[in-house]
């Protein structure tokens, strides 16, 4: 899952991004509304964590523009205002969820995960295929009932493959969903990560390479 965090308080923005990355999510950060719109115009995000009170372009206007463009990401708004009228107004302009500051980080993670499952076709909370089970909430992976210890990137790549439900996923799609905007598009990191992931999942192999196209589980 790829997430954009938009928050003008840099310490908070970076803390949220760090916490989300620890959950094996790919995260980009923008510190104002214009930066958010610029990144959304370049990258495709599953979820946008959007502070409402932003400089340059207000968070409400960012939300309205993305909704008008039918941008596919789900939007969760953050705000210091927790009154009912504020929540209703945020949802009425197109936000999918609303979280008042201060908030528990565990709740933010749960809401981001829930919105991510709704970003495309609905996904079950636990993904299963070919004897592989992945639980995003618990950060657990099993292969035929055996626990598998994965790095954050290996976990993210496996989650993308399982979410595809048997469809082929290209290297470009894996870079888009499992890494952030700072990754070199010409790197061999996908191939290297796939090698270690296959090794950890063990035999018989469950990840197929489709020559010239990508990977399939």
How would you portray this structure in words?
- The protein is α/β, with parallel strands linked by helices and 217 residues long.
- It folds into two domains: 118 residues, Rossmann fold; 90 residues, Orthogonal Bundle (Arc Repressor Mutant, subunit A).
- The strands form three sheets. A five-stranded parallel beta sheet has the order 2-1-3-4-5, with helices on both faces. Strands 6-7-8-9 form a four-stranded antiparallel beta sheet, covered by helices on one side. A two-stranded antiparallel ribbon has the order 10-11.
- β10 and β11 form a beta hairpin.
- α2 runs parallel beside α3 and α6 crosses α8.
- The longest helix is centred in the middle third of the chain and has 14 residues.
- It is elongated.
- InterPro entries: CheY-like_superfamily, OmpR/PhoB-type_DNA-bd, Sig_transdc_resp-reg_receiver, WalR-like, WH-like_DNA-bd_sf.
Strand content of the residues, in percent?
A: 15-25%
Oligomer type: single chain
DSSP strand tally: 11
- Helix and strand content put the structural class at alpha/beta
What's the main sheet like?
5 strands, parallel
DNA-binding region: 124-217
Keywords: DNA-binding, Phosphoprotein
Domain Response regulatory: 2-116
InterPro entries: CheY-like_superfamily, OmpR/PhoB-type_DNA-bd, Sig_transdc_resp-reg_receiver, WalR-like, WH-like_DNA-bd_sf
Give a brief outline of the structure.
41% of the residues lie in helices and 20% in strands. The chain is an alpha/beta fold and 217 residues long.
